[in-house]
């Protein structure tokens, strides 16, 4: 059970393919308003929503990637009709979060960049299995974006890998080993999947 003393980091992609996008966003907003320590990050699906809001020419790629479901759950026909509080939520999402020896990001970092924290494209679209950049090499990086089976997710923890992917792809319920929403308690390295 989540308490106000817990720190919860959400790795993005809280909208599009799944059910009830609006309810999920409202729930996150409410948790923060009542004092829970929740840090939602931006994922590529939130980026596509914002790019569509900024320019309608971006709409086809967003629609192809689940945008229709989000419009339906928000009860709007066009993203320009989104409520100001929801737009503000999406606009204020951050690309990464650093805490102790951990870095949280939706996808990954540009390992060859002088400053990998400036490449926002990589943070939502690119991921790697390890990093050698001096700014990243001594960190444990937790990300989503690239679907993996739950068994592989568990093996990453057993091997104490530098990079932990917890995207067990809750949208692929029909695929064996997938279809789970997964969280990790980092100090105990315990996985929770539903």
Q: Can you describe what's shown?
A:
- The protein has 194 residues and is α/β, with parallel strands linked by helices.
- The chain has one domain: Purple Acid Phosphatase, chain A, domain 2 (4-Layer Sandwich).
- Helices cover 32% and strands 16% of the residues.
- It has six helices and eight strands, in the order E-H-E-H-H-H-E-E-H-E-H-E-E-E.
- The strands form three sheets. A four-stranded mixed beta sheet has the order 3-4-5-6. Strands 1-2 form a two-stranded parallel sheet.
- Helix 2 packs across helix 3.
- The longest helix is centred in the middle third of the chain and has 16 residues, at 59-74.
- The radius of gyration is 17 Å and the shape is globular.
- The two termini are 14 Å apart.
- The model has no long low-confidence stretch (mean pLDDT 94).
What are the salient characteristics of this protein?
single chain; 194 residues; alpha/beta; Purple Acid Phosphatase, chain A, domain 2; 4-stranded mixed beta sheet; two-stranded parallel sheet; 6 helices; globular
Order of helices and strands: EHEHHHEEHEHEEE
CATH superfamily: Metallo-dependent phosphatases
Q: Helix coverage percent of residues?
A: 25-40%
Mean of all residue-level pLDDT scores = 94
Low-pLDDT segments: none
Please provide the count of β strands: 8
């Amino acid at each position: 059970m989540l308490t106000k003393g817990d720190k919860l980091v959400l790795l993005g992609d809280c909208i599009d393919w799944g059910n009830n996008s609006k309810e999920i966003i409202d729930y996150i907003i409410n948790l923060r308003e009542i004092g829970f320590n929740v840090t939602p990050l931006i994922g590529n699906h939130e980026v596509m929503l914002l790019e569509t809001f900024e320019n309608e020419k971006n709409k086809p790629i967003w629609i192809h990637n689940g945008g229709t479901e989000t419009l339906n759950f928000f009860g709007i026909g066009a993203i320009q009709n989104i409520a100001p509080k929801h737009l503000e939520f999406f606009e204020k999402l951050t690309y990464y979060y650093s805490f102790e020896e951990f870095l949280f990001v939706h996808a990954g970092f540009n390992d060859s960049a002088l400053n990998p924290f400036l490449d926002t494209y990589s943070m939502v679209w690119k991921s790697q299995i390890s990093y050698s950049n001096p700014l990243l090499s001594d960190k444990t990086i937790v990300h989503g974006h690239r679907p993996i089976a739950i068994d592989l997710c568990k093996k990453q923890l057993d091997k104490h890998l530098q990079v932990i992917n917890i995207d067990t792809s809750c949208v692929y319920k029909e695929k064996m080993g997938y279809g789970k929403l997964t969280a990790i308690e980092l100090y105990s390295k315990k996985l929770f999947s539903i």
